[in-house]
């Protein structure tokens, strides 16, 4: 599956980096999401949790 992270929508909550640190980080300058790996196996539990827990809806999965 493909992971997309919209930095313009991100509110810097950091749930993605806490939930899936192998896929996400936070920009040191503004705290917004940094996508480290845009490809994940279908049904990847960490990626699914990160998208579900993102309070701003900045993370989408396809």
Quick rundown:
This protein is α+β, with helices and mostly antiparallel strands and 62 residues long.
Can you characterise this structure?
Helix content is 23%, strand content 19%. The strands form two sheets. A two-stranded antiparallel ribbon has the order 1-4. Strands 2-3 form a two-stranded antiparallel sheet. It has 62 residues and is an alpha+beta fold. It contains two helices and four strands; from the N terminus they run E-H-E-E-H-E. The termini are close together. The chain has helices at residues 15-19, 45-53, and strands at residues 3-5, 24-26, 33-35, 59-61.
Our count of helices gives 2
Structural category is alpha+beta
- Name the shape in a single word: globular
Which range best describes the helical content: under 10%, 10-25%, 25-40%, 40-55%, 55-70% or over 70%? 10-25%
Q: Report strand order across the widest sheet.
A: 1-4
Q: Please state roughly what percent of the residues sit in beta strands, choosing from under 5%, 5-15%, 15-25%, 25-35%, 35-45% or over 45%.
A: 15-25%
Mean pLDDT reading: 97
Give the number of DSSP strands. 4
What gyration radius follows from the Cα positions, in whole Å? Answer: 10 Å
Unreliable runs: none
Major β-sheet, in short?
Answer: 2 strands, antiparallel
End-to-end distance:
6 Å
- Element pattern in H and E: EHEEHE
Which keywords apply here?
62 residues; alpha+beta; 23% helix
Layout: helices, strands, pairs:
Elements: E1 3-5, H1 15-19, E2 24-26, E3 33-35, H2 45-53, E4 59-61
Antiparallel strand pairs: 1-4, 2-3
């Amino acid at each position: 599956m493909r992971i997309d992270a919209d930095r313009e929508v991100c509110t810097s909550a950091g749930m993605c980096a806490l939930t899936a640190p192998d896929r996400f980080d936070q920009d040191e300058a503004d705290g917004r999401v940094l996508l480290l790996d845009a490809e994940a196996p279908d049904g990847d539990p960490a990626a699914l949790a990160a998208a579900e827990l993102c309070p701003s809806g900045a993370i989408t999965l396809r």
